[in-house]
Amino acid sequence: MRSTLLVSASTLLFVSSTSAGFIFPTARNFIYIVPDGYGQSSQTMARDYVSLLRNGENPKAPVTIQLAADKLVIGTVRTQASDNLITDSAASGTAFACGVKSYNNAIGVDPSGAPVGSILEAAKLQGFKTGLVVTSTINHATPAVYAAHVADRNSYEKIAEHEIGYSHPLGPQVDLLLGGGRCYFKPMSDPTSCRKDEIDLFKYAKDKGFRVIQDRAAFDELKKGNAKVAELPYIGLFNDDQLMYEIDRSRVPAKEPSLLQMVETALTSLDRATKSSIKGYFIMIEASRIDHAGHANDPAAHLHEVIMYNDVMNYVREWIDKHSDTVMLSAADHECGGLTLNGFNPLPLKSVSMSIEEVSRLWSAYNGTDRRGYLSSTILPGYGLGDLASSEVDRVLANNKLSTDLTALLSKKAGVNWSTSGHTASDVILHGYGSGWRGQNLRADMAGNWDNTQLPGYIEGVLKVQISKVTKLLRAKGTSWVGKREAGGKDHAHSH
Amino acid sequence: MRSTLLVSASTLLFVSSTSAGFIFPTARNFIYIVPDGYGQSSQTMARDYVSLLRNGENPKAPVTIQLAADKLVIGTVRTQASDNLITDSAASGTAFACGVKSYNNAIGVDPSGAPVGSILEAAKLQGFKTGLVVTSTINHATPAVYAAHVADRNSYEKIAEHEIGYSHPLGPQVDLLLGGGRCYFKPMSDPTSCRKDEIDLFKYAKDKGFRVIQDRAAFDELKKGNAKVAELPYIGLFNDDQLMYEIDRSRVPAKEPSLLQMVETALTSLDRATKSSIKGYFIMIEASRIDHAGHANDPAAHLHEVIMYNDVMNYVREWIDKHSDTVMLSAADHECGGLTLNGFNPLPLKSVSMSIEEVSRLWSAYNGTDRRGYLSSTILPGYGLGDLASSEVDRVLANNKLSTDLTALLSKKAGVNWSTSGHTASDVILHGYGSGWRGQNLRADMAGNWDNTQLPGYIEGVLKVQISKVTKLLRAKGTSWVGKREAGGKDHAHSH
User: Fold this and answer.
1) What residues does A407 pair with on adjacent strands?
2) Is A271 in the same domain as A375?
3) What is the three-class DSSP state of B12?
4) Nearest beta carbon to residue B76 from set A344, A422, A429
5) Interface test with A, best of B424, B428, B433 (most A CBs within 10 A)
6) Contact A76 B429 (CB under 8 A)
7) Catalytic residue set of B
8) What's the mean pLDDT when you consider all of chain A?
9) Which residues does the record give as Mg(2+) binding sites (chains A, B) (predicted)?
10) Residues 6 or more apart in contact with residue B193 via CB below 8 angstroms
């Protein structure tokens, strides 16, 4: 795929599908969207839910409304790691970002542990503006692979340092970072820090000219689009940990922007920052927490993350219609949870107003004396199980495994099944969009089944940048700076 | 989709993806392939199995080989029935064949029970040759919808009558039928008949000029391609029931042709029969028993049916390269079994040499005195469980649910999970192929997510035929001839 065949658009009609050549729809900007842990059943679940809610709520007479991602399907993607048929987000992310098949836990390094450049770094090197927008911690595996190179994904502090440029051999690579993970950027003397040293990455960022945003109020200023405030570079982190699930955001005075709000803001900033330059931008957007809800086997939280992903896909599609010099690809890094819809009726998910994460939070925080009453009056109705039989409530209380029991009960009620709390080996769907002839080329070129390592090569062709140039620069600094794999490090592919 | 926009190929480049118009790659021939019950995980399972076998059998260092269907992915298809989020093969088949959303159990009729023409009948009406090639009984739901119109899929005798033209209002519609279901074509006085009347459909077929083939020897004569022998029309049925699973065919002197052998023969016959005519042919090929192995939760039988489907896809692709005036689409009617690959290692499936259907057959037929010995020496090794611990063998014997226990043990060993013995609601993958500009148009037009009812409209555009003309003719005969829905009829979507 790296051997590119650039031909004029007029020859398109007669290029064979089996040709190794691509007719890259050259563009100034590339938007890459990763719905982490989003499987094929995730989309069917969301589409049927939205369709039923708008069409009489009768699963015996369903009428379908397509969601945004539906309209953009172009192929499928294989996901396996170099050392496992089931990938984690690090290996698949490294494939997406760097075009290299690597091991589970690898962040921007190949199987030998040598650093490999990313498509974001390649774009940066050629003068493009760059952005990362996620709902996980910003130093989680999927964003990490675009601007960090460490042997082990669990090296969160090191990843944060790379991402902001503090210890990245090539300095700051990302002009715009939005998401969670604030605690990794604060020195350990700050009580809300999760670092084990005094490195102050927010201070470093400010010194390097970044605007640092740490709350919703400051984000709203940014979002208003005041030209000076929204100038690049900036970093906005709105939670010490992951951002809240979409289903939970509405339950409290909104402290955090939604993924869609962050995307709107980021694209506006990138567009403005590149208005008068030759080169455009590369941005990676991650709907991060589809995966977390899959690990938790939490159907309603999963559903609302998937709907948000579709809202973002819709916004990006409309954005591209207005900014035609832009191409988008989107694929999950892997499926998560082994979701199947085997007796399916999504309507019971309608009354769910919190994630199982929120349930656990409330349940742990409850310090009253009537645990049964609190469960019945607050937790169960909030989790869509207000009609649970009294004997079942007793059983759940006695069993003392609230999360496991409630997610299983809700899943059963909605006719969905999870086969694992980890990932699965299944292919994922590839989506893409370009307007006019760019879209035409994209669909003709990228229909089919791809290895996850093949996608960044396509982006290289569209933006005319080269990852290999970055790899060379990174390796000029040696390889020991990527650190070592942590023995017994957490295995994210196979458990939560 | 029925409002067609035929424009010259030269305008292709600038047709927007969101346009309602299609640039149909007009062709003489259309090949439609239904891998019944084939879900996305089915393909990953088959690909990883084949790849491992050819690449060192080390799941910790996997190297992927693409299978034929991989290269032909173009989109996804929604499958729901008019009365259920989970479809059966009848409703989804009626959508594929007739373009109409109908109820589970419907065969070529709309929700009101009125007949609707099929794409096969529309092609026949315009002078095309037509064929049905399956591994199920020929009067099973998926082939039935192309040439039968009955209110209930369980009306197997009636369906056989329609398919051969005996009681089809428009006479014989299918020039070539290959598959199983012989017993439905023989009068009840024949001891191998499964009819409840004396209608002799083979005799009727002969009277109408069909060559009738009932065994492998006669098929082999056909396959040799002797021009006179292979002349249309013909019907070849090689088993009173379904054809054997592919995994079982090699265990006995081959009595039945494989799906691939039937496809080779059928395409050669159709091609020869239309060589000197203006109109070409329409053929529906079904890899029928992927679904049956899904219902049975039988991983190795499922795997080998999926590999056979890929072999057929490969053959058809090469056929189209040599016969470029031909377009192919292929999509499953639904997923079956809720298959996920959650701890996946397909290597244990290598030693399996029989389906669970064959296991049951052998176990029922065994009349010796050493049941435990027979289980240990013959059944378990044949089913890939030769290493089962002695205590487990005792448990299985005592439990007396051999099929359920062995499929569960084998599935666990291979790290695959089934969530149901019925169908699921998930989308399925759309594949398509055309050579040169036809393929280019096909991919550009048909990328995306489609309702199953939208596909025959595309075939209408390619062949320039109209289903509505057939519907009009069928309804001129009234509607009572389609019969009534059977109260308490078998629900194929939700159980085997």
Assistant:
1) none
2) no
3) helix
4) A429
5) B424
6) yes
7) 89
8) 93
9) 36, 140, 142, 286
10) B183, B184, B186, B187
**Do B381 and B457 fall into the same domain?**
no
Whether residues B400 and B424 share a domain: the answer is no
Which residues in chain A touch residue B18, judged by CB atoms under 8 angstroms apart?
A: 71
Q: Which residues of A386-420 are buried (b: 16+ CB within 10 A; e: fewer)?
A: eebeeeebeebeeeeebeebbbebbbebbbbbbbb
- Element at B119 (helix H, strand E): helix B119-125
Same domain, A175 and A290: yes
Look up the CATH number of the domain holding residue B438.
3.40.720.10
Report yes or no on A248 lying in a domain.
yes
Q: Are A160 and A181 in contact (CB under 8 A)?
A: yes
Instruction: Kindly state the average pLDDT of the residues A115-131.
Output: 98
Q: Are residues A169 and A304 in the same domain?
A: yes
The whole-angstrom separation of Cα A58 and Cα B404 is 34
Residue B313's pLDDT band (boundaries 50, 70, 90)?
A: very high
pLDDT digits (tens, 9 = 90+) for A126-158: 999 999 999 999 999 999 999 999 999 999 999
Whether residue B241 sits in one domain with residue B337: yes
Range of the domain at A390: 350-414
The residue with tokens 């954005």 is: A319
The residue among A387, A414, A441 that closes a domain is A414
Domain count, chain A: 2
Instruction: Let me know if residue A496 belongs to a domain.
Output: no
Residue B494 lies in a domain: no
- Whole-number pLDDT of residue A461: 96
* Least confident among A249-253, A389-393, B51-55, B115-119: A249-253
Give the pLDDT of residue A489. 66
User: With an 8 Å Cβ cutoff, are A40 and B76 in contact?
Assistant: yes
Domain co-membership, B221 together with B364: no
Predicted confidence band at B488 (pLDDT cuts at 50, 70, 90)? Answer: low
Residue A295 marked ligand-binding: yes
ipTM field: 0.93
The pLDDT score that the predictor gives to residue A469 is 98
The C-alpha atoms of residue A24 and residue A38 are separated, in whole angstroms, by 27
User: Do B224 and B356 share a domain, yes or no?
Assistant: no
Dig out the tokens for A161 from the structure.
């340092």
- The pLDDT tens digits of the residues spanning B153-168 come to 999 999 999 999 999 9
Q: What DSSP state is assigned to residue A164?
A: H
The answer as to whether A215 is a domain residue is yes
